[in-house]
Amino acid sequence: MIDRRLTLAALAGLSSFGAFKWLSASSQAQADDKPAAEKFEIEKTPEEWKKQLTPEQYYILREAGTERPFTSPLNHEKRKGTFACAGCDLPLYSSETKFDSGTGWPSFYQALPNALVEKTDRSFMMVRTETLCRRCGGHLGHVFNDGPKPTGLRYCMNGVALTFKPGASSAS
């Protein structure tokens, strides 16, 4: 006679195994979906980047980390000027396109021309559009379709990945 508990335990084990296989296949499909390593104008070894950047900048720019919301002094930056990549100093955003999104990260509705590379980010079981510096490949943040006019975009950036240069803004 088959014990009911034994049958339920066997079924649970099989379904767990099926879920494990499905997750493994899903992870492999994502890995296969990633493009080959991109080449950027500025390329450095991890050791060279670590010498140049602070530990937090390295975590954000080189390891695609995220800073805690509401911690960047750039959230409150209201002067005219240009926001540049903290890794290579490439101008990325004009202060004229900065807005307060309420998210806790510096936000912009438009990038400067030829400043960014976008790629699909499938981490954390969701699909987002990651933004990278076009010149050094540093991770800056993500772009979303819930921003203000005229573009409807919200470039949600890690403040640690940016520097601010006061002065005449580089309008796009």
Structure description:
The chain is of the alpha+beta class and 172 residues long. The chain has a domain at 46-68 and 79-166: Peptide methionine sulfoxide reductase (Metal Binding Protein, Guanine Nucleotide Exchange Factor, Chain A, Beta Complex), CATH 2.170.150. Helices cover 27% and strands 23% of the residues. The chain contains three helices and nine strands; from the N terminus they run H-H-H-E-E-E-E-E-E-E-E-E. The strands form two sheets. It has a six-stranded antiparallel sheet. Strand 5 (116-121) and strand 6 form a beta hairpin. The N and C termini lie far apart (77 Å). The model is unreliable at 3-36 (pLDDT under 50).
Summarize the structure.
The chain is built from three helices and nine strands.
What is the count of DSSP helices, taking H or I runs of 4+ residues? 3
Strand segment tally: 9
CATH architecture of the domain at 46-68 and 79-166: Beta Complex
CATH homologous superfamily label of the domain at 46-68 and 79-166: Peptide methionine sulfoxide reductase
Q: End-to-end span in angstroms? A: 77 Å
CATH class of the domain at 46-68 and 79-166 equals: Mainly Beta
* CATH fold-level label of the domain at 46-68 and 79-166: Metal Binding Protein, Guanine Nucleotide Exchange Factor, Chain A
Q: What spatial form do the alpha-carbon principal axes imply?
A: globular
Estimate the strand proportion. 15-25%
Q: What assembly state would you assign to the polypeptide chains in this entry?
A: single chain
Structural class: alpha+beta
Instruction: Report the average pLDDT across residues.
Output: 83
Largest pleated sheet: 6 strands, antiparallel
Q: Approximately how much helix is present in the residues?
A: 25-40%
- Rg value: 21 Å
Name the strands of the widest sheet in spatial order: 3-4-8-7-6-5
User: Unreliable runs, pLDDT <50, ≥5 residues?
Assistant: 3-36
Order of helices and strands: HHHEEEEEEEEE
